[in-house]
Amino acid sequence: MNITEKTDEEIFALAKPLWRDLVKSSNEGKYGEFVRNFSSSFALAMDQVAAGHQFANSELARNLAEDSDALGIIRRGVHVTVLYRQRSTKKPGEWLGRLVLGYEDGKVRIFGASIF
């Protein structure tokens, strides 16, 4: 099945624990847990040194609020992008979170993730 064929509710249910785990591992600076659900291509593209530097030096990446608001879903090709309103426990304001999901070897995997 193509993930784009799932309902919004089904996609949000798949995305919620993945986003929650990314936030938790980012706050804790645990690179191995952070990339655990990445697709193989995304994991290869993620530079461990650069990610470690981000974890060590980014106040935002280490202080994400556990609560976030799902804003919507964009379907394209064989992937969906779930958009989140993300807040920080230390910095005022809101950020846009992006989680790209698709299937790899029959499992839902993360093909992209960012906060900006």
Task: Summarize this structure briefly.
The protein has 116 residues and is an alpha+beta fold. It is built from four helices and four strands.
Describe this structure in words.
The protein is of the alpha+beta class. The chain has 4 helices and 4 strands, in the order ααααββββ. The chain has a single domain (3-115), classed as Nuclear Transport Factor 2, Chain: A (Roll). The protein is 35% helix and 37% strand. It has a 4-stranded antiparallel β-sheet. The longest helix is centred in the N-terminal third of the chain and has 21 residues, at 8-28. The protein is globular. The chain starts with 7 loop residues before the first helix and ends with a strand.
